[in-house]
């Protein structure tokens, strides 16, 4: 995606208002047994957005200027690096922000009938295909560089992700874009690099709590209790054997809580080194930022967590949450493994979960809305579900003046060039030829539009 200066100002205002929120659908659990970061359940890679590294110029039909299009570099938490393309053209990319690996159902691809074609392009172009001579031959081109191949690939992806028509400046790159768009076929969505399901279980001491299904493409992944777990609590398999690692594919694990253990909770962490499947979506954890899709990867560290709670008597709650883009909200799964009913209120609605029962319901959330739900129960049970719903690609706004303006420096972080909003956190997938005009509009939006983004929770257009 390209840097949109006027929209960027409003986005930054909104970002400041909601900073500190955790990943969409993530769960923070009260109590010393829980980790500070609530990256439970559907896990995988967490990465920080860096700069646009490999790019070339692309002309966007209808905009009247050019953008730099190509590959972003991202650093994976705990080790590794990945390369991504943009699948949300009209949204700013906020450099330095953390992103989570998610399935298509938790991104703007959830209702895109061409999502599989985007993955086909990723599999059949640069950087997955790094024999550029062969790629050029297939496209009927004479010569491609990694920069022009990346630009051509990004332009083809935008065709299916945002219905944007982009033509690379380089004639051979333009042939590659056309080739990819014409040849693309729908292929299936890739599986997660690592996931735990469910992310929360409950029961009574003296029982095995679970099962929790671990699914990973890592050859092996380490399994351990996080610090603070009560003495005697172990992670075991169905036969009661202690589990310290799992193998590639699906495995089932349980919390083994000895009889007589005081009411409490514990958390399990699963972590492994693997390559994240090409085509996995990456969404911003804390603020609205451009959605990305994986194009290239090194061996990276992936992780996921799940919790368990137990009590001697009464209701024993467990809560899992996941963003549901198809329904426009957050799916909450609440279960009660105790011997009494459990009632709680959420967004003005009362829910009662009978003993031994489970219920899943969707809490509606507006697009781009920052949400925070607190669910409480007996024995000081408390879970906070918070995040930002980002399920749609943005749409363009009014076209600015045609007055020509000097081009700014390509692929730099915001704040490093004249006319930017400052702060140094906008990563660019392109730069505008209309920087002064856009900067002026940006200043106006800070005053009259920034608050509206947060309070109205509406997706602001980002035309340049």
Structural notes for this entry:
This protein is an alpha+beta fold and 464 residues long. The protein has seven helices and 24 strands. Strands 8, 9, 10, 11, 12, 13 and 16 form a seven-stranded mixed β-sheet that branches. Helix 2 packs antiparallel against helix 4.
The number of helices is: 7
Class of secondary structure makeup:
alpha+beta
- Residue share in β-strands: 35-45%
The overall strand count is 24
Low-confidence spans: 1-41, 398-424, 430-464
Query: Helical amount among residues, as a percent range?
Result: 10-25%
- How would you sum up the major sheet? 7 strands, mixed
Please report the distance between the alpha carbons of the first and last residues: 12 Å
Report the radius of gyration as a whole number of Å.
Answer: 24 Å
Mean pLDDT: 81
Note the overall shape.
elongated
In short:
The protein is built from 7 helices and 24 strands. Helix 4 (about 145-160) crosses helix 5 (about 170-185).
Task: Reconstruct the topology from this structure.
Elements (H helix, E strand, L loop, with lengths): L4 H14 L7 E4 L16 E15 L5 E11 L4 E6 L6 E2 L3 E5 L12 H10 L7 H8 L6 H16 L4 E3 L2 H13 L10 E4 L2 E4 L4 E18 L8 E3 L8 E12 L7 E11 L6 E4 L7 E6 L2 E11 L6 E8 L4 E8 L5 E5 L2 E5 L4 E7 L5 E8 L3 E8 L37 E2 L7 H14 L1 H7 L8
Parallel strand pairs: 9-16
Antiparallel strand pairs: 1-23, 2-3, 2-6, 2-7, 3-4, 4-15, 5-24, 6-14, 8-10, 10-12, 10-13, 11-12, 13-16, 14-15, 17-18, 18-21, 19-20, 22-23
Please supply descriptive tags for the structure shown above.
6-stranded antiparallel β-barrel; 7-stranded mixed sheet; elongated; 24 strands; disordered C terminus; single chain; disordered N terminus; alpha+beta; 464 residues; 7 helices
């Amino acid at each position: 995606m390209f840097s949109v200066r006027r929209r960027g100002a409003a986005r930054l205002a909104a970002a400041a208002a909601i900073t500190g929120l955790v990943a969409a659908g993530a769960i923070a659990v009260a109590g010393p047994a829980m980790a500070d970061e609530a990256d439970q359940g559907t896990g995988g890679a967490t990465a920080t957005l860096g700069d646009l590294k490999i790019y070339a110029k692309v002309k966007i039909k209808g905009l009247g200027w050019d953008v730099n299009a190509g590959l972003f570099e991202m650093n994976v938490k705990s080790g590794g690096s990945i390369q991504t393309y943009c699948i949300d053209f009209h949204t700013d990319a906020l450099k330095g922000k953390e992103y989570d690996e998610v399935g298509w159902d938790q991104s703007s691809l959830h209702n895109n009938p061409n999502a599989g074609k985007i993955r086909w392009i990723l599999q059949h172009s640069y950087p997955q295909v790094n024999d550029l001579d062969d790629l050029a031959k297939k496209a009927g081109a004479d010569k491609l560089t990694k920069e022009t191949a990346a630009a051509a690939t990004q332009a083809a992806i935008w065709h299916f992700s945002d219905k944007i028509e982009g033509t690379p400046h380089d004639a051979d790159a333009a042939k590659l874009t056309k080739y990819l768009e014409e040849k693309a076929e729908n292929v299936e969505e890739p599986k997660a690099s690592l996931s735990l399901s469910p992310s929360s279980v409950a029961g009574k001491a003296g029982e095995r709590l679970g099962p929790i299904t671990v699914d990973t493409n890592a050859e092996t992944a380490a399994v351990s209790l996080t610090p603070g777990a009560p003495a005697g609590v172990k992670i075991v398999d169905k036969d009661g054997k202690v589990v310290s690692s799992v193998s590639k594919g699906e495995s089932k694990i349980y919390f083994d809580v000895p009889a007589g253990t005081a009411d409490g909770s514990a958390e399990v962490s699963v972590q492994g080194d693997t390559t994240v499947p090409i085509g996995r979506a990456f969404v911003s954890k804390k603020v609205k930022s451009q959605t990305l899709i994986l194009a290239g990867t090194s061996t990276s560290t992936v992780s996921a967590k799940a919790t368990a709670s137990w009590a001697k008597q009464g209701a024993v709650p467990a809560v899992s949450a996941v963003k549901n883009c198809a329904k426009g909200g957050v799916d909450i799964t609440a279960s009660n493994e105790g011997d009494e009913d459990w009632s709680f209120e959420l967004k003005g609605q009362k829910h009662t979960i009978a003993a031994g029962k489970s219920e899943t319901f969707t809490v509606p959330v507006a697009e781009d809305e920052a949400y925070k739900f607190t669910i409480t129960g007996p024995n000081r049970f408390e879970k906070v579900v918070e995040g930002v719903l980002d399920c749609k690609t943005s749409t363009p706004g009014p076209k600015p003046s045609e007055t020509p303006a000097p081009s700014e420096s390509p692929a730099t972080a915001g704040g490093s060039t004249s006319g930017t909003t400052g702060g140094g956190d906008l990563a660019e997938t392109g730069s505008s030829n209309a920087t002064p005009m856009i900067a002026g509009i940006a200043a106006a939006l800070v005053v009259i539009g920034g608050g509206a983004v947060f309070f109205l929770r509406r997706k602001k257009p980002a035309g340049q």
